[in-house]
Amino acid sequence: MKKATKLSIAVTTTFYMLCGCMGYAAFGDSAPGNLLTGFGVTKAYWIIDIANAAIVIHLVGAYQVYAQPLFAFIEKEAAKKWPKIDKGFKVKIPDLPSYNQNIFMLVSRSVFVIITTLIAMLIPFFNDVLGVIGALGFWPLTVYFPLEMYIIQKKIPRWSTKWILMELMSVFCLLVSVVAGLGSVVGVLLDLQKYKAFSSDF
């Protein structure tokens, strides 16, 4: 698990740093939020299609990871309030085994997906909103809690060199999160000035 985590963090960090640095080197301050759209008309359109397909695959998986606990909570609470709601029916598909389908589950999850899709379409400045969310979640979830758990687990004494370095890193990452959050909020405010609903060109 430790090796897999280290490898995944290394690969992800390398990928994002390369994208960020290359995008800035190529486009400067006018780098597009979606780096793939910054190349204009190109003969290698298939590369953009493959990259966009990879993004869709990534987001579908991430959406499931984040949405499943919410779905489970909603379905559990609904089952408590309305005990008969979790009754389902068998769905038969030719050449496949039948499976049980729950009407409430189907409807509630579909409505959730429709609502989140509409919200995403209403807010076309996705990158800035994502930046705000990322800035809010980065320091506490990626830095502070893991570091504090590590310090407690390894019983690192206060004011030791290791403890001081780890706390300094935590403070530095907090400052980065604050600056990134402020930048993203400014981006959202600027986007709101020229905002048109359901438009990607605003």
Account of the 3D structure:
The chain has 5 helices and 2 strands; from the N terminus they run H-H-E-E-H-H-H. It is mainly alpha-helical and 202 residues long. Among the domains are: 1-30; 125-202. Helix 4 runs antiparallel to helix 5. It is extended and about 60 Å long. The chain starts with a helix and ends in a 9-residue tail after the last helix. The model has no long low-confidence stretch (mean pLDDT 80).
Radius of gyration: 22 Å
SSE run: HHEEHHH
Query: How are the strands ordered across the major sheet?
Result: 1-2
* Largest sheet data: 2 strands, antiparallel
| β-strand number | 2
Classify the secondary structure makeup into a structural class.
Answer: mainly alpha
Alpha carbon gap, first and last residue: 45 Å
Number of helices: 5
Average pLDDT rating? 80
Shape: extended
Hey, roughly how much beta strand do the residues contain? under 5%
User: Helix fraction?
Assistant: over 70%
Low-pLDDT runs of 5+ residues are none
GO cellular component, one term: plasma membrane
Family: Belongs to the amino acid/polyamine transporter 2 family. Amino acid/auxin permease (AAAP) (TC 2.A.18.1) subfamily.
Domain Amino acid transporter transmembrane: 1-189
Subcellular location: Cell membrane; Endomembrane system
